[in-house]
Amino acid sequence: SAAKVFGQVSQTTGDADLNQSLNVSSVADIATGIFKPTYSNAFSEAITNCILCTTGGGANDGIPRMAGPAGNFEPTTLAFEYSTCKGSDHTPQDKSFNGFAVYGDLA
User: Fold this and answer.
1) What per-residue confidence (pLDDT) applies to 57?
2) Which of 85, 106, 93 lies closest to 1 in space, CA to CA?
3) Which residues of the chain fall short of a pLDDT of 50?
4) Rounded to an integer, what distance in angstroms lies between the CA atom of residue 25 and that of residue 35?
5) Are the CB atoms for 35 and 27 separated by under 8 Å?
6) What single string gives the DSSP state of each residue in 3-58?
7) Cβ(76)–Cβ(42) under 8 Å?
8) pLDDT of amino acid 58
9) Cβ contacts of residue 71 below 8 Å, gap of 6+?
10) I need a surface site. Which of 9, 17, 79, 90 has the fewest CB within 10 A?
11) What is the DSSP letter of 62?
């Protein structure tokens, strides 16, 4: 089925700026390299969602990056925390291009 939530976030200005989205009511900047999208419409269950995450620094950024749901936050039916870091040493970093999509059944 199609993604029920998606978004593109820039996190380089000290805030998490939501540039494009579907079913996202807000994005909070939690800490360096961590932000939290909140959904407009809840999922029926948090545990059965499939969350895909991407990150990048922009043109000519040759440093490997990693992105995924933050390890210290259990996804809920209304939100998840997203973490971005440098791939070589896992240092948290704010990045200019972060994308996410969430699949599952809405409530």
Assistant:
1) 65
2) 106
3) none
4) 14
5) yes
6) -SEEEEEE-SSSS-EEEEEESEEEEEEEETTEEEEEESS-BS-STT-EEEEEEE--
7) no
8) 55
9) 83
10) 90
11) -
